[in-house]
Amino acid sequence: MTTPRIAFLDVDGTILDHGRTIAPSTIDAIRAARAGGVPVYLSTGRSAGDIHPDVQAIGFDGAITNGGAYAAVGSEVLVADPMPEDAVARLEAFFADAGIHYFLQTDEAVYASVEVQAVVAQMLNRWLSAHEGAEPQSAPQGRPRFRDLDTIDRSRVAKAVFVSETADAVERARVELGDTFHVVSGSMPLPGGSNGEIGMRGVTKGSAIQTVLDHLGIDAADAIGIGDSWNDVEMFEVCGVGIAMGNASDELKALADEVTTSVLDDGVANAFRRHGLI
User: Residue 79: which H helix or E strand, with range?
Assistant: First the structure.
């Protein structure tokens, strides 16, 4: 087994639990790998402006954001692929017709109507009540999580996220939108129902990672990708080694090359150690 030359890490459920906790070993492992000359990149469904400050403070060589719609190496933007405005209009019409709550992401921020913000807050509070001591990442400290949907520039939308009280919302979205869009189940901690993420077809973490690798002149076989969610599948497919977190679903683990321990049980550090990055 050769030592990987680059690593791509999901955020929620991989670096950060679905609260605001990062295992100290994760911070140490990322910094040690980078100090040893191994580039480490974020690979997240989140907007760049919605990444928790404590995650950003660890230090990374670049980031895949919005599930692959944007990618940067250092400060150089390699991928900037927002949705066409007619695609955004189609999504919003679908959500309105289906009665599904949704957010729209640009690379700078996440936007939601005041009504949807209230619904999501109620859902997260119910989740908190069922998980005593847990604190979902509802907002980075010091600023609101969402901006008002009325203020968004729809020419800059990169991705949509949706939540529904019904269990079949993701499948309905796939059936009605799958000809044009990439629809996956989301990882938002909710007390019930379903949630998902929608980007353009062909725009995935895997596609953006390939662009970064080509730019850096690194073979995909020399990359590892670590994640726990359905938007990580294409990352697993592109990287030479795809690693599922111990807290991932069994179905997702089956699609990875190997499984590490969970997010707060040194999952990232153990994967890095196994592959000689630290």
Answer: strand 76-80
What does the alpha-carbon distance between residue 141 and residue 212 come to, in Å, rounded to a whole number?
31
Q: Which residues of 78-91 are buried (b: 16+ CB within 10 A; e: fewer)?
A: bbebbbeeebbebb
Q: Residue 244's beta-bridge partner residues? A: 227, 259
Say whether pTM exceeds 0.85: yes
Token look-up 């890490």 returns 9
The residue ranking higher by pLDDT, 123 or 206, is 206
What pLDDT does 130 receive?
58
Q: What are phi and psi of 240, to 5 degrees?
A: -55, -35
84 has pLDDT over 90: yes
Range 64-72 average pLDDT: 98
Alpha-carbon distance 20 to 161, whole Å?
Answer: 20
Q: In angstroms, rounded to a whole number, what is the distance separating the alpha carbons of residues 103 and 255?
A: 28
Whose CA is closest to 127, among 84, 15, 119, 26?
119
**CB contact at 8 A, 7 and 40:** yes
